[in-house]
């Protein structure tokens, strides 16, 4: 079964849930490492999504032509 890719909002919700679990006094050290790893994967996913959006953003230049957004 193919896993559905999470939206950025869903990834942020997962990260928040992971943080709540990590703050719990009931989480074991081993589980905290697994939660940390999962959180880092979600953060990478968010960064990848934001980078993809940034590459698609276009703006009008002074001549009214569309240009690809570039970092300042």
UniProtKB/TrEMBL annotation:
Function: Bidirectionally degrades single-stranded DNA into large acid-insoluble oligonucleotides, which are then degraded further into small acid-soluble oligonucleotides.
HAMAP family cross-referenced by the UniProt entry: Exonuc_7_S
Organism expressing this protein natively: Roseburia lenta
Classification via InterPro entries: Exonuc_VII_S, Exonuc_VII_ssu_sf
Keyword Cytoplasm included in the entry's annotation: yes
Assigned EC number: 3.1.11.6
Keyword Hydrolase carried by entry: yes
Annotated family: Belongs to the XseB family.
Name of the protein described by the UniProt record: Exodeoxyribonuclease 7 small subunit
Gene: xseB
Lineage, opening ranks: Bacteria, Bacillati, Bacillota, Clostridia, Lachnospirales
Superkingdom per UniProt: Bacteria
Subcellular location: Cytoplasm
Keywords from the named record: Cytoplasm, Exonuclease, Hydrolase, Nuclease
Main location: cytoplasm
One Gene Ontology molecular-function label: exodeoxyribonuclease VII activity
Complex and partners: Heterooligomer composed of large and small subunits.
């Amino acid at each position: 079964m193919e896993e559905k890719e999470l939206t950025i909002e869903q990834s942020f919700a997962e990260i928040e849930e992971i943080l709540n679990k990590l703050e719990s006094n009931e989480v074991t050290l081993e589980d905290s490492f697994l939660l940390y790893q999962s959180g880092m994967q979600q953060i990478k996913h968010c960064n990848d999504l934001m980078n993809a959006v940034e590459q698609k953003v276009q703006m009008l230049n002074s001549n009214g032509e569309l240009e690809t957004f570039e970092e300042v």
